[in-house]
DNA sequence: CCTATAAAAGAGTGATCAGTCTGTCAATAT
DNA sequence: ATATTGACAGACTGATCACTCTTTTATAGG
């Protein structure tokens, strides 16, 4: 098969794209991304057919990375609310805060890519798959509460939004990080339970 | 003073920018916006020095429009929570839902412009001013509750996020609009009270 | 080792962009 | 009425863009 594509090079491009897009937004040029990855202008297009394809892949990658840092400890079992769903959700909550703290560039890049018109509905649907467990957990949390008629998408979106708000609060007042994290989680629990 | 600038033309450009950016995102060209406004390429730049300036003005305008539809009925008086803060917040909640329903293009455009790197922190701070009353109301709502230590920015962001989530739910299931609106508001109240 | 194949580099390409320039025309002040 | 000013249209400009093409080079299979 002649010369194979290099997984590390593909990864370099992704990593560079995350940084460059976090800094400059979606408008960043493929040339800039390529240079940041140490890859020629042309080579970038042997790994991604178009810029739109790159953005779609990036979206999937970022969502997947976030999912692996977030869902790893969530058991899929159908634990009743009384017996630990709250604690499970708390784990997810802190995992997401941890992701945002440890991967700030990924978070910024995801915020940019998420609003891109180049990211298709198909891609968005695909990216939601790794969160099936989290959605199931959210479902269990609200099943008997005041939000029993709300949709899973509503809850998922709210969790993300509340994470964002919490992260912002922590950024403004870092010494109160733990307090904000608890306040945020309690608010989430009150809202959805 | 020779020939004065036309307020209606300036407004045409703004309106066109809202539509074009809602459809195409921030990447939309000034030429496209000008054409949609029925204004020549050059004329656009007599009203806005640069594209960045246009985006900043657009952000201010959109935030202001939303504020006027949202804050008009919120009394600034320091009503105690027990005597109607909940009802005041409910008014704001439905006003925001109304804005989102009646001005979908403005909402889409705002979502795009909000993430633009061209919109400065100064602009963002300025745009927050018309919401002082709403923030004060939110402050009163949470003053004695579990979120008494959270920041106003946190609450404001949460309200917007929950409006977004509610709008999305309504879009998916329009026949249950009223139900979703109530569920969303109750969740908000539980979260922040 | 040799050949086939595809990756890689980077110059090249046409399109498009934000912003400028020039000539024209409309509104205002006198 | 006329002179002055600046809005206006739209051609123009240089930069930049996504993407391609050509040549070179690395690697896999025989």
From TrEMBL, chains A, B:
Molecular function (Gene Ontology), one example: DNA binding
Keywords: DNA-binding
Top-level division of the source organism's lineage: Bacteria
The HTH tetR-type domain, residue ranges: 7-66
PROSITE patterns: HTH_TETR_1 (PS01081), HTH_TETR_2 (PS50977)
Portion annotated as DNA-binding: 29-48
Protein's name according to its UniProt entry: AcrR family transcriptional regulator
